[in-house]
Amino acid sequence: MQEVISLNQITKIYERKIALSSLSFSVNKGELVALIGPSGAGKTTLLNLLAALLPPSQGEILIDGHPLSELKDPKKRAKKIGIIRQQFDLVGELPVIHNVLVGRLSEWGIFKSLLSMLIPQDKGYAAQALSRVGLADKLYEKTSSLSGGEQQRVALARLLVQSPEIVLADEPVASLDPARAEDVLDLMVKIALEEKQTLIASLHSVEYARKYFDRLIALKDGELFFDLPASSVTDDHIQSLYKLKEIS
Ligand SMILES: Nc1ncnc2c1ncn2[C@@H]1O[C@H](COP(=O)(O)OP(=O)(O)OP(=O)(O)O)[C@@H](O)[C@H]1O
């Protein structure tokens, strides 16, 4: 098994708040990992650290055995790690094709990137990606006119065009109704398997985490609460993870 991510005693402190405390685990290539845990457990913080959007306060993250902090070249980083959030990174006013082609920006120089705002470049990539997510006919539609589920598929198409080895997803289905949430998760996992990607997604739904992922990493108060194969997670584990502190 090839280890692609390794966290070594990671701590993240925001001003005085300890969001993550001495967290260590590793992830192998191709694993499908769900991050679960109550609100404020540190899931978003962890994903932002893995995406190098935030630096850790202490500890080290290794990607393929090399410190993430040294992966500075934007082009190389985009090929290694991609992140998807709830609709947030899409520009609603732009046609779908422009949003999908943002996935190519790290490949292009500044001139091609600017030109693409007027005349979409590498249209073939966008068309192919949109057809894989079932939106072949939406290429020129205004992104904000699409439903939440369709917009999340646009974000998946953008990731297909970027084609990173590691996909991080922060609450990718939080704003979707159950049928559309399952649809998007199904597609996200299918793409990860086809592209041999490593997928780490934070989820509020334990049911989806167990259904679609191989491994569940549970955080509570910034610490590792359990790290188990999805099939070994019991209702008791879940109950104690989400149990509120009793007021004495
Ligand atoms: N920028 C910030 N400044 C200060 N504290 C922060 C900041 N971002 C997060 N926190 C705090 O760090 C802790 C972890 O937050 P984080 O957003 O990572 O949790 P989460 O598990 O993703 O929560 P949720 O499920 O509600 O999204 C929380 O107590 C939160 O209030």
Describe this entry's structure for a reader.
The chain is α/β, with parallel strands linked by helices and 248 residues long. The chain folds into 2 domains: 1-72 and 165-248, P-loop containing nucleotide triphosphate hydrolases (Rossmann fold), CATH 3.40.50; 89-163, no CATH class. It has helices at residues 43-50, 74-80, 96-101, 110-118, 123-132, 148-162, 178-194, 206-212, 235-242, and strands spanning 3-14, 17-28, 32-36, 58-63, 66-67, 81-85, 166-170, 198-202, 215-220, 223-229. The chain has a 6-stranded mixed sheet, sandwiched between helices. A 4-stranded antiparallel sheet has the order 2-1-4-5, with helices on one face. A hairpin with a 2-residue loop joins β1 and β2. The model has no long low-confidence stretch (mean pLDDT 89). Bound molecules: adenosine-5'-triphosphate. Adenosine-5'-triphosphate (ATP) binds at residues 14-15, 17, 19, 37, 39-45.
Count of alpha/pi helices: 9
> What is the CATH superfamily label of the largest domain?
P-loop containing nucleotide triphosphate hydrolases
State the name of the first-level CATH class of the largest domain.
Alpha Beta
Average pLDDT metric: 89
Overall CATH architecture of the largest domain: 3-Layer(aba) Sandwich
Could you list the spans in which at least 5 consecutive residues all have pLDDT below 50? none
GO molecular function, one term: ABC-type phosphonate transporter activity
GO cellular component, one term: membrane
Keywords: ATP-binding, Cell membrane, Membrane, Nucleotide-binding, Phosphonate transport, Translocase, Transport
Domain ABC transporter: 5-246
